Amino acid sequence: MQAGIHPNYHDINVNCACGANWNTRSTIKGDQLRVEICSNCHPFFTGRQKLIDTEGRVSLFERKAAKSKAIQEELAARKTKKAETATV
Ligand SMILES: [Zn+2]
To answer: Ligand 1 centroid vs 52 CA: distance in angstroms?
Structure first.
């Protein structure tokens, strides 16, 4: 093995936001790695529909979707009203 060209591959401890932690090996700096999601808590593995909404992106999308639906309903109501007045 040629010296001085290989990264420092060492034991590290990985901590997930869900509380799970395990040891592995990596070339990262330091010996601690923090992750937001792992195979213990990801919905794909757990089968549960649980989103970790760290930046509020999901609630923002839900608010936008509700607003859009309200506007569409209003437009549809306006359209039917117009049609009613046109036939009368
Ligand atoms: Zn986890």
So the answer is: 10
Per-residue pLDDT, 53: 66
Q: Please tell me the distance between residue 29's alpha carbon and the centre of ligand 1 in angstroms.
A: 21
Q: How many domains does the chain have?
A: 2
Mean of all residue pLDDT scores within the chain: 88
Spacing, Cα 37 to ligand 1 middle (Å): 4
pTM for this model (two decimals): 0.48
Same domain, 40 and 12: yes
The domain that holds 26 is classified in CATH as: 4.10.80.400
Q: How many Å lie between the centroid of ligand 1 and the Cα of residue 31? A: 18
Whole domain around residue 75: which residue ranges? 54-88
Distance CA 77, CA 83 (A): 10
* The residue type at 22: W
Tell me if 8 sits within 8 A of 26, measured CB to CB: no
